[in-house]
Amino acid sequence: MEAKAPYNFIPLNSKVITYDAPADFDKYQENKHSGYIMIDFITKTPFYIRGTADGEGKTCEFFAPGGIKKIPGSSIRGMVRTLVEIVSGGKFSFLEKDKRLYFRAVGESGSLGKYYRNLIKMSSVYAGVIKNKDNKYIICPSNKFYKIRGQFIEKSFVVKYNSTNIVVEEFGFKEDIYFKEPKKNNLVFEIRDSKHDNYIKGYLVASGNIIGKNIQWIVGVPDTKHYLLIRDKVIKLYKSDNNRKKEADLLKKLETHNRGVPCFYIKEGNEVRAFGHTPYFRIPYDCSIGEHVPCCLTDDNLTDMAESIFGKPQKWASRVFFEDAEICPNQKDVSLELALPKILSTPKPTSFQHYLEQTSDGDKKHWNNKDANIRGYKLFWHRKTPCKDNDKRQYGWSERTAIDECQKPSDEVHTLPIKPIKEGTKFKGRIRFENLSSVELGALLFVLDLPDESDKVYCHKLGLGKPLGLGSVKITPKLFIIDRKKRYSSLFDGGDIWALAEREYGISEYIDNFEKDMLDKMSPEDRGSASKLWNTSRLAILKMMLDWKKAENGGDDWLEKTRYMSIDNKEFKERAILQIQKPFIIVPLPNQ
Questions:
Q1: Which of 188, 349, 426, 499 could form a disulfide with 493 if both were Cys (CB 3.0 to 4.6 A apart)?
Q2: Residue 78 is part of which domain span?
Q3: What is the mean pLDDT of each run of 10 residues along the chain (592 residues)?
Q4: Same structural domain for residues 144 and 156?
């Protein structure tokens, strides 16, 4: 099976091309350039930047401070900086190096599943009650935990015994239940919600509602005389798991349950290694994210071109300044009709078959494999997706478009209905710069002025909804350089005209300077036999991802290849590897 995704990766460079830190900021330097780059934007797809909610909180407007639609300078800056970092052989530094991801691999068939099951096998899992003691988290161990059979009815787990129903909400627990200890199989058959002779007191614990799941758990009353201290590093790791459902967050539950919350845990010696709300809970990988990036690409002692230009916190300031791009005047009816966009959640790097380099043979490498590097920079393909309800709706970016249907569902995963602007809408912005060398200025222009080829159109991606096909824009830059010495020599330039001492320059010379400098400094591994920067192996992949023609001519075939895979259709079951070595081959549709 071939993996599909609306994104792919630009591989990491083999070494960092270093640059000197910028000189003092107290003067304009004669051998450097100051001025601005005017940028014309034209949207190739629907385009959306989140603004504020309307007065009733029912829709979210396009970003429009002062009533003027704009592309925030911060959005443009982020895009440009990432591209400069890629093309200039920069560091891969914008990541949480110490962060460790969590996993749960109950039904996994590969090495990760074997590792998880060996780690979590029932003889190694303990139960107890987590409490807060003197601002520290502790677990009071229980002697034992048991299984119990019941059924989920909507969002509640129901256990029936005689004429009594004992109900507990999913991801919740019910304290002060009483049960008869089973003689075999650890499966409880007799349970009550009040005291009874020869019955043991405990907690009924429910996981999430999974179809066909009818077994849940009972935790016995803990031994309060003894406890295990949970180290701060374990608590920090637990809090960092962004993919855990908040209903399953034991620390949040503890805020409203002073007597404690039942939990399950595994130990390392006499210390808690990890804990969760059911026996098959999520466990942190042994390796951090940073351990999957070569050390040379995260060395804070090195300075790359992106840091030199854009600044380095606590060291020096930026020499480029991005203004908001305003919508051009005299454009009418630029907004699309109200639409409820499809759900986009946070990235899922736990899909290691996508995010880590893989070999074609053997077991797939996961985050515990120290020899597996991160794939690189994640970018999104251009996609020309439909919006209105039609036969291509499965590829569209909206769930509903009719205004009377566009009410935000009563959940926490949908966003408010939005009104993107139409394709073909024009914006104009400006990037100011100070004291840039010809090579540094060339780097900015290189990533803004994408290649001009007769059979291809290269575009950037900005704004929200990029995986769904929003945010493709065509950028055209114009360069203006200011002669600072001439500017401050006189106030007027004849008559009553201000002496701005600025004029438009061609950009090819600066791009050529940057390209030559890069090719001279690149490692042989990164350069290969290329005589043009765009023909080097990494940038050839970047060029593929910026190619708008793939979206324009690819039709349904391209939309199918660049869609998210479905959990419902079990497309993730085999963990198909996302290939990045070769471009997708797109055959244009007839008459295109």
A1: 499
A2: 7-99+288-561
A3: 89 94 83 95 96 71 92 97 97 88 85 87 90 94 92 92 89 94 89 90 92 88 90 94 90 93 93 94 92 93 96 94 97 88 81 89 86 94 79 73 57 78 97 96 98 91 94 97 77 72 91 97 94 95 95 90 82 82 45 42
A4: yes
**Domain end residue (candidates: 267, 284, 301):** 284
Domain boundary, last residue among 229, 258, 284: 284
Residue 592: its pLDDT value, please? 40
Q: 246 with 311, same domain?
A: no
SS3 label, residue 589: coil
- 525 and 429 inside one domain: yes
Exposure b/e, 411-429, CB count within 10 A at least 16 = b: eeeeebbbbbbebebbbeb
Residues 413 and 355 in one domain: yes
Same domain, residue pair 127 and 258: yes
Two structure tokens written together for 95: 């990541």
Q: Are both 328 and 404 inside the same structural domain? A: yes
Return all residues near 391 (Cβ < 8 A) that are at least 6 apart: none
Is there a domain that residue 503 lies in? yes
| Same-domain check for residues 225 and 349 | no
571 falls within a domain: no
- The predicted pLDDT at position 318 comes to 96
For the chain, helix, strand, coil in percent to 5 are: 20, 30, 50
The answer to whether 147 and 127 have CB atoms below 8 angstroms apart is: no
- Cβ burial of 280 (10 Å; 0-12, 13-18, 19+) is middle
Q: Which residues pair with 220 in a beta bridge?
A: 202
Helix (H) or strand (E) holding 74: helix 73-87
Say if 581 falls within a structural domain.
no
Any domain includes 582? no
pLDDT score for 388: 62
pLDDT at 435: 94
One domain, residues 444 and 346: yes
**Confidence at residue 400, expressed as pLDDT on a 0 to 100 scale:** 67
Residue written as token pair 């909610």: 53
Distance CA 12, CA 543 (A): 15
In the prediction, which pLDDT does 587 show? 41
DSSP string of 101-145? Answer: -EE--SS--SHHHHHHHHHH-GGG-EEEEEEEETTEEEEEEBS-E
Can you tell me whether residue 245 is helix, strand or coil? coil
Does the pTM of the predicted model rise above 0.85? yes
C-alpha angle 117/118/123, rounded to 5°? 95
